[in-house]
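Much of what follows relies on a compact textual record of a protein's fold. A record is reproduced here so that you can trace the correspondence yourselves:

. . .
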Amino acid sequence: LANIFVKGNKAVILEVNSETDFVSKNDEFKAMIEEIGESILASNATTMDEALALSCNEGTIQDLIVAKTAKIGEKLSFRRFVVMTKEDNESFGAYLHLGGRIAALSKIAGASEDVAKDVSMQAAAMNPKYVFRSEVPEEEVAREREVLKEQAMNEGKPEDIASKMVEGRLNKFFKEICLTEQSFIKDGDVDVQTFVKNNGGEIKEVVRYEVGEGIE
């Protein structure tokens, strides 16, 4: 399960895994996640080693996971977490989807928690690969440009027109993979960045966890 814990100007998003879905609905498992989240929130831990060494009712977080694994009878693993801190003029938006299968946490400057929550909801639903265009690796853009150029040339377009078409289609590519450029799900006439800007805000950071992603 993924979950988010917020206290004042600090938030933690984390993922703890069980072997079966059945256990993820177990109250004891949920309570363990709660304890891990609250412990990290109350500490200065930023790495997994630091988090596992934090003290809690069972000794350390590591001890807690071992104890619950024995009790629940299934391997439980604390997979990852991110600590986010904000300034007073910034807002966190926390959003859990499908009971914690997906969690998204965003930080927005100058806008309300509702706006930040809408951004997190967008991230959860639309699964963008990146937040900003500037994060897309140059080689990924170059590869896409090559593919688009080939397509345009195959359509029999002259080189100069093909190049113009490529730039237009490249923008479409960014619209699909970058959160800030995606059409806002609550209002398709604006992109996410514009929606936030219209509410006096600016997106600072977004983290999205989908349980089990990247574990083959």
Notes: The two ends are 17 Å apart (CA to CA). The longest strand covers residues 77-85. Residues 152 and 192 are 29 Å apart (CA to CA).
